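Sequence in, structure out. Go.
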Amino acid sequence: MEWAALLVLLFCSDVVEVVPAAERPSKHLLFLVDTSGSMEGDKFASACQAVVDIAAQPVDAMEIAILAFDDEVARWPGLPASGGPPPRFQATVPPRALPRAPARRVPPGWAALPSREAVRHASAWLARRPPEGGTRIIPALRAALAEPRKELTVVLVSDGQFYQERGEAILAALEEAQRAREAKGLGRALLLVFAVGEPAALLEDLGRLGRGGTYRRARAEDAADEGAPPQTAPSKPKRRSSSRPGTPGGAPPPAGPFRSAPPAPAPR
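Output:
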């Protein structure tokens, strides 16, 4: 499957590009999931589903890890030896067939895909972490970018309600962590932001500085703004101008990571 198309399936919905991506994501995907109290309800369900959806896609050579954060940072233990589906599959995703892949070893805290077992483990682990507590994004960003892997893509899934830390301090911490990666020879990580709800200005800044872009789910009013009827099926994402003052909105965006997946051929 085309990697760009996979990222559309990541959120299983029409996706709006709020800040365009400057670089292409890698296949070492580390989810940074906000589990603070402000994510309670539909927000947390959407965040969890995003992780499970991408883990269930039939993409070879992809590897995932998950960090959850509120006041503290917790790590999914992963499946260091994974890649082949087990005999039984119980998860929160539709029980469709996944291609079998030979088991391969990955670093601790990671899982190789495709893997039914990884989907089941990731889903169950997130379900045991109900949203609660405050939100401290700086320790979470530091933990994510300290991951000792090259070609790392961090996917931040959050509502952006970071009231315990100043925006300037958060952006400075991101840049400091990136420089630390460069000093270790790991190279800069790509930070891709998926906003749960309306993107806060800080989430736009993080997606811009992280070069992975900022995205959110489309809403009915987005189609109404375009003068078109609301869409109910995935389609090519629409560009939205940044809410930050002084951001150009008329120029065409560079090619971002989100594109619609091609339709599957009809069965004969």
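Check: DSSP finds seven helices and eleven strands in the chain. Residues 167-183 form the longest helix (17 residues).
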